[in-house]
Description:
By secondary structure, chain A is mainly α.
Amino acid sequence: MNSxxxxxxxxxxxxxxxxxxxxxxxMNEADRxxxxxxxxxxxxxxxxxxxxxxxxxxxxxxxxRLGEPADVVASRVGPGGGRLGRRRRSLPxxxxxxxxxxxxxxxxxxxxxxxxxxxxxxxxxxVAYFATAVALVVSxxxxxxxxxxxxISPDVFLEINRWAGETIFQFGPFQHDPQVAGVIALIVxxxxxxxxxxxxxxxxxxxxxxxxxxxxxVDKARSLFARGRRITAAS
Amino acid sequence: xxxxxxxxxxxxxxxxxxxxxxxxxxxxxxxGYSLVRSLTGPVSPGIKEGTVYPILARLSREGLVNSxxxxxxxxxxxxxxxxxxxxxxxCEALQEEFRRLVRLVEDAARPPAETDRDPADKKIAxxxxxxx
Lengths: 235, 132
């Protein structure tokens, strides 16, 4: 591309346009290119209309008159469209991130492998954590129910054993005093259920943390992808 | 206090700038830089030149302006803007509304005529006369 600017001014303008481009993340490539071309054109007009001083001063004054990149693209990206701030559309972002990762050929197979591996590890960790928590809650409450029945009516289990013709329920060392076994089962089961509930409650913080890590990985993949495309385009 | 006035002036300017952009494009085409110059003259007092681009983008989304690129013999291509038919109609309606608002502000700022004066003012005037 013909830069039209002298070299020193071109460097200043290119830096500004890079910042402007960063504010336009989320916009499609064609629209983004058009915005950058239009602002470059504006800067050129402003630069050539100002004849005072050297080219660096003229370029800096042109940027100052134009304003901050975020103000120039204010309504184009919309609230939350920038890199920072709240993102409500987490699922589309996750899908888009996954697609970018999968099709990010410039990263190479090694890069893809590392990213896919990290994402899979995170997902696995999350699934294992919540599965453990749910299992603890379910088994804890089931155990507590059994303990409660043992305390109130221990004969129920002895009847079941008799009806089945074999020993399904055993009370171990408390064979002659099943109510003690019931109390112990109730306490231990409630503790397990409590642990499960605690894990579920604290899980939201772990979920937030993992989501942050996930976004960092996806953002990194996107920037590597963009850099790869620029290198491919330049060569 | 000066900051508050600055904020109010900025808010006022923001609303009017969109109409000014439309008015500048009424019957004429402009590229971004020439539009800024037509609005502000050789210098840009109080507004950053870049503020016209979000306005142009919004007007374009609303179908009030069209744009097209034209090669320039002196530098990079320029993106020219022009009002659509809907844009012209909107501009004329908004200009009429703007004139009505200007009249409203001017009438409100005009000192009241003798007959319109508040009765409380009259009482004070009478009492002063008695005092004299």
